[in-house]
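Predict the assembly for these two chains.
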Amino acid sequence: MDIPRGKITAIMGPSGTGKTTLLKLIGGQLKPARGSIDFNGQNIPKLSSRQLYNVRKQMGMLFQSGALLTDMNVFENVAFPLREHTNLPETMIRDLVLIKLHTVGLRGARNLRPAQLSGGMARRVALARAMALDPSLIMYDEPFTGQDPISMGVLVKLIKKVNQLLGITSIIVSHDIHETLDIADKIYLISQGKIVGQGDPEQLNRSSSPWVEQFIHGYDDGPVPFHFSTDNLLDDLLGDKK
Amino acid sequence: MINKLAILGQQGILFFSVFGRSFILFLHTVFGFFHLFKRPQLLIKQLYSVGVLSVIIILVSGLFVGMVMGLQGYNTLVDFGAEESLGVVVAMSLVRELGPVVGALLFAGRAGSALTAEIGLMKATEQLSGMEMMAIDPIKQILAPRLLAGIISLPLLVAIFSMIGVLGGYFVGVELLGVDTGAYWSQIQEKVDFNHDIISGVIKSIVFGVICTWIAIFEGYDCIPTSEGVSKATTKTVVYSALSVLGLDFLLTAIML
């Protein structure tokens, strides 16, 4: 799987197929049984703990829940990586944090605590925090799940903006077809640990692969069957009662 | 029969697996203490949360334990005409045993369970994973200050417990039951030995501080990140801490006597 630099790549597939696991492998939170994961010329699974933490400064991750630190307010959450990894004076950190919050439209929410934010706002703050160290890669784990149409539209716009203006390589894991096809430059469709389709949105829409067709169009039956594997119905009804 | 043996074997392997994981985490956390030189505010915040906020329960419990000891001690000693020794009985019992043990049990119930719940919820809400992806080691940032705060706080809390307990015994014995004030304090001064009694209490409280906080942070860090998982972890913290404290108390008492 190749993730083109500076583009938005989507990884899509049925639930439970390993999309989030893939992000955790790229981020080094999990080790693969075999194979390699190259990031900026470094093989992630082979890195020492110190090297891995250094590489992670070049990555940002937007978790599904936002993963904001609940004992800090919005400002402190975005400032957290800057305070930990830089020696910048507080005045400069303040300006950087306000710029990041302004980018996501939440500069006015700087003093709110995570419990006071809606789900969409929490994700936007998490995006501001993920951008704090100006990473070269941002990974989005199901960014549109559970969002109302307005929040979804805002997030779609922000992801596109972050990619276009800042040139940050983006990987989106999602099964929201419409939103993802709208912004992705390249899409990988995975199922049961294998790539079953890849290409840009037009290529996938025209694909003749039954897997791709079923997923893109949302058919209830196909290579991913409607019925969970079991005996024939008549055998079950007329046979031994188990 | 074979099945039962297999289950026993599995449980044994599981126990050693958990113990091994917890020991590795403990070592990793201890190495994280050096990080606190650069971020002392993390330790100070935890000293407040773990130590200062436990003072009230320690004070109230210590007072009542001391008062009960005064009552019970007087009730027994008066039959032998030895009620003047009440001070020694109360002070020795508190300083050597009740202070460290009851203090540790209260600490495990209040601070230990809170630590486990906090860390478990941070795991469930992906805050720990978020920190890892921000290139910040959650063990250094979250676990190390809590462990060190527990190790520092418990001996101090135990000292407060013992002190307030002696005062509680004084209030009951001297003020209410008429034991001579001079006898109460002079017996304590004469019989309670710093090296033998007080130091042994301090050693016990340090060991209990390590064990209770270690169990608390491990159960939180290792729990299944669901509400049920956090709930089970919190219960395990209190139970395992209590059992460990009582077991270690016997061991340490046998060694130090």
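Chain A touches chain B through 22 residues (CB under 8 Å). Chain A has ten helices and eight strands.
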